[in-house]
Request: fold
Amino acid sequence: MATYIKIYDLCGANCIAAKHATKLYEQIYPLLKAGKEVELDFTGTYRFLSIFFNIAIGQLFRDIPADQIERSLKFTNLDDLGQRVNKQVIESAKLYYADDNYRKAVDSVMAEQFSYA
Reply:
């Protein structure tokens, strides 16, 4: 039986805050790492920022195999916008964590950009 998490109870209608994403990550990471199933129910949510999904979902791919995440993590009642943002984050995270050369290139570009700020 999957662990059920109602996202609205965590962050309300807006999935935008890093603190809520961190809290979600801290809830789901140990469950997925242990091979358990998790269902994230997005009923009542309608605003999404990629940073939310990057923190809550994207970094899971650092330590957990992509196929395990895809088998064990379910998203329900996520509207079209949320699905698009989440899909983009997942695709980027898979590539970033699976390819050392790609990760080094991205990190190098990001470091360079922030050094000019």
In short: The beta strands are 3-6, 14-15, 38-41, 47-48, 73-76. Helices lie at 7-11, 18-33, 50-56, 66-72, 80-98, 100-115. DSSP finds six helices and five strands in the chain. Residues 80-98 form the longest helix (19 residues).
